[in-house]
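worker-03 picked up job from queue 'complexes'. Input manifest follows; two sequence lines, order preserved.
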Amino acid sequence: MAHDITIEENYRMPEPVRAGVETGSLTRIIQELVFTVDHKKLGLMYIAAGLLFFVLAGLLACLIRIQLAVPNNHFLPPDVFNQSFTMHGTTMVFLVGMPIAFGFANYLVPLMIGARDMAFPRLNAFGFWVFLFSGLFLYFSYIAAPGLYAAGAAPDVGWFAYSPLTTKAFSRGHSTDYWTLSLLLGGIGSVATALNVLVTVFCMRCPGMTLGRLPIFVWCMVVMAFLVILALPCLSACQIMISLDRYLGAKFFDTQSGGDAVLWQHFFWIFGHPEVYILIMPAFAITSEVIPVFSRKPIFGYPIMVAAVVAIAFISLGVWAHHMFTVGMVSLANAFFVTSTLLVSIPTGIKIFNWLATMYGGKLRFDLPLIFCIGFLFQFLVAGLTGVMLAVAPFDWQLSDSYFVVAHFHYVLIGGLLFTIFAGIYYWYPKAFGKMPDHTLGMWHFWLFTVGFHITFLPQHFLGFLGMPRRIYTYQADRGWDTMNLISTVGVIFQVAGILFFVFNLIYSFIRGKKSGDDPWDGWTLEWATTSPPPEYNFAKFPEVKSRRPLWDAKHPEDPDWKHE
Amino acid sequence: MDCRATDAQPAEEIHRIADMFQPLSRPAELLLEPTRLVLLVSLGIFIVVLAVLVYVLLKFRPRSPEDHLEEPPQVYGSYNIEMAWTVIPCLIVFVLVLVSSRSIVEIQNHPMPEDALKIRLIGHQWWWEVQYPELGIMTANEIHVPVSTRDGKPNPTHLILESADVIHSFWVPQLAGKTDLIPNRINNTWIEPFKTGVYLGNCAEYCGTQHANMLLRVIVQTPEAFQKWAENQKQLPAEPQEALAMKGKSDFFDLSCISCHQIDSTPAEGVFGPDLTKFATRQTLGSGVAANTPENLRNWLLKPDALKPGCYMPDMKLSPQQLDSLVAYLQTLK
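worker-03 finished. Artifact:
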């Protein structure tokens, strides 16, 4: 790189010397992982654990697709199929999406705001271990939980667990308890981490890093943390209420004793819809960092981009009942939720337009992070538009709970979130490991996964139009669903191949990748101003910030940003 | 397995492909207007944004390795442009809100004529109970309704939706969008089909193990055929004459079939399973899992779990003789 402005050698502190165990030994590594309170290690552990659960959830998805490849298939019995989609959904939302988002937040927020660690390092470690334990606990149900038909039954109530399916009468055994307790536990960890992010951003910014100069990544993480703190406690309350219903004779949702099934839906979606935006915030965050750097231009319209995420988060708190257009609400309530839901599309549209405007007039560099972000832009465009369709209640009456919905939220969460997670991993891989990710392997990953993704999920829109409901373990041969289901399953093969390239790339580049240097992408945010990987203390001397792109200022003293902001 | 209906009724056209874009009934047809609008708007936005994306990617792609030595002009934003792409979406949203609201009110608050046929549809794990309170008819998994006419007096059917256990959802895409069947609640919807035939639907809310095989048929008939069907349903089935069927009848009452099933004017008064009074007039068994043929029925009685794993009908460990006699008896219930 032309500009070498990383911190000078004399700013670095000597490595702290620890007595006892030899450096590099297995014991030492395990000790480091278990006892660490370093935000970077915890961040990487969050992402690694998230990817591990991603592989598990992916395997479950493979089972689901194999079962649905042909009509009247006997590959899986219905109870195993139902457990599979329940575990797949729960895992992807709570054990993949959120932990990876927290991983990115943990790793990058302190670096980007010029802090030495998170505000509460021990709380941070607590959050991680609670999350990991909750995930393992959930999967332990496969071994331990007695369910409807046998011992060793995972939860089978669906990831939104509509009551009264979760009451004792319809969910005998303990598989549902594993679900409730695991999410209760995970919720505690999530709230702790979110609180930590907020305190870190509000109290630990380096000199000159005003809120108006925060990288948009950090803004998105702040908004995400706020949403977590507002939404997750609702979920925890729901889980406690189910447990009270099941074990202490409460009757919140137990319809057989006069409880209310729709109440659960309200409570759950008051959590559940902000949750969707919790999951998409990291996508906004990563895209807003990658697109400027790889277009060589500052983000277009910083203030409105920040305002848009705040607006999206705010509106997202008032749209929950668009998941419930079919429960028979009065027409006024339906119209209200149509309106609030459609309002979300305005700030979301602004974000897409501003990303395009950022690329416009720039000099694009088609490296892996940008390529995955372009995939994201395309898929998120489709997802946004199918979202608008679902917001129109009359259309939703047809499409709700159909395969169209399945296609829609996979375009949001796979086409949107997962693509940006890949972009983020490739973008910050050199920072975390000091090695460049392999471009060729990454391109194989991109094309196989993208093609597979569209082959799998595009036909599902049309299955919805043809009346195929979601969560059915089998279907009859003459409903017009056979061909598209088969195509959908074939796409999985490509996706699996893509993921194999991804995993191989991570390992291969770690061992064989060429050294990246501290700032391989010629970035502008503070994390590129320290070494790769950064030392435990991040910055020996707190950087001073005068604009939104401190490293641009350092690299272009003739035309710094602060003259324009 | 084959589930093609092979019953005694005049061959009705079966609309197998439940395409929501080919509605043959009123609420589904009314849904199409906002649906078409939002599809059109979305397509427009998709094409414009995609065109811009492709243009940007081509126009600003790297042209030579030296291209990156110099940074492009730094543009920080433009309030005018941002204002434009805030206001235009606002207008689009405004239109969509108005059109959706009108359509919601039109469908949800649709006045039902006094004499509209009323049907109580009660969801069970995993079958549909169908009651015609005014006609005194009780059946299962198949709804018979008269056809309506586009011109002249409409002939809608009012569906009253309830549930006996968990949440289910009524969805026959060519007739109407979804409405849930929720325990402790009464929901309403209506259909007004313009074309005779058999319409297929599924339960559309996950309701447990056999959610997939909770299939529903709506059989739309001419008013005369419907009248004939209704008259027949109200009459008790003739006493079995054949020896085998007579033995089947006594088997039916000796075994515990009657704990769950009902046959009018007999001691069989169970309410846990479907009413069997007119069982042989139905097209399918097991809530659509198989066609109602003697062979399928025998397999079903032999081992319900094989056709519909996890269903609540128990394997009664019937002997081959009992199976034959029960099948013969059940065939007489028409």
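worker-03 released lock.
The radius of gyration of chain A is 24 Å.
Chain A touches chain B through 100 residues (CB under 8 Å).
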